[in-house]
Amino acid sequence: MASNRPAPEFSYAPIDEEFGETDERTWEEWNPTEESVRPVRGRHRVAKQRGGLARSSTVLGVGVIAAVGAGGIATAQGGKPPVHISMPDLSAVKDSLPDAKSLPGVGALISDVSGDDDESGADATPLTGAGITTADAQQGTTAGEALRARIMQQAEQQQDQAADAEAAAAEEAAAKKAAEDAAKEQDAAKAKAAADKKAAEEAAKKKAEAERLAKLAKSFTLPVASYTITGTFGQPGSMWSSGYHTGLDFAAPTGTPLKAIHSGTVKEAGWAGAYGYRTVLELPDGTELWYCHQSSLNVSAGQKVTSGDVIGRVGATGNVTGPHLHLEVHPGGQATGVDPAPWLRSNGLTI
Length: 351
Fold this sequence. Notes:
Elements (H helix, E strand, L loop, with lengths): L14 E2 L4 E2 L32 H24 L55 H5 L4 H75 L10 E4 L16 E4 L5 E3 L4 E8 L5 E6 L5 E10 L6 E2 L4 E5 L9 E7 L9 H7 L5
Helix pairs in contact: 1-3
Organism: Streptomyces aureus
EC number: 3.4.24.-
GO molecular function: hydrolase activity
């Protein structure tokens, strides 16, 4: 590499202004070379500049913006008047900052920048008045007061929303409970109506049965007027060939009149072995009534009788231990009889 030509030497004698003397030292002109101007490496390297403006200037601008914002916050928190900060005139260097418009808020600090030239769309409102509406500015409201008012308004809105949500939930719960109560009341009303209907039906049924029995009672009568029940249907014992009692015994003195329980036709009247003297009365529905152990007979086979007619007398004939009427009931003329007591009650008779 070629080196620079050596510079000519010359003498420079500066004048001492105080004593009027000259400096006799000899000075040489500095001739820089590539080696002498090599940049210093390490942490002490000189920062490069962009567009003629050092980065420290940009940092200064950001610091100014932070200071302005801090002043607005301090005003909002402490209620102190806003701090006014003098801003440096940057109009002389704006042309050397091609990317200044991309920094939020920097365009507002350059007085000559118009709204049409601001391509970044940055807010041109001074930072000390950020958040202040025209109405607030007319009333003299500071940024801190405006911020506090908006925070309080937002808090009140949130409280109102929470209260509305709570009220809506309470209203929904009340409506749900009311619907459940109404459903329970409706079910209870239906159950009560069904129970009342069933009770009414049962009462009507009992009344109809009572009327029927009362009507039958007029056509049915007990075979003996005065008696004592001494044997019931189904009693076990060796006295009966079937091993149990097949009828209902009405004990009464010998000769007590025996009445026709209902109108019918005498089917048999005569001796019947262990039954003694027996009369078989056939009713219109085919049911046969057997009157056994009679002392005497007052009717004959084929004779028609009505309810209450005397058909014989109480006796002790046949296989007996004392005078009584042994009454058997054979529905449809079947050989096996049924319990006479329920049959009598079903026809309106009480024993």
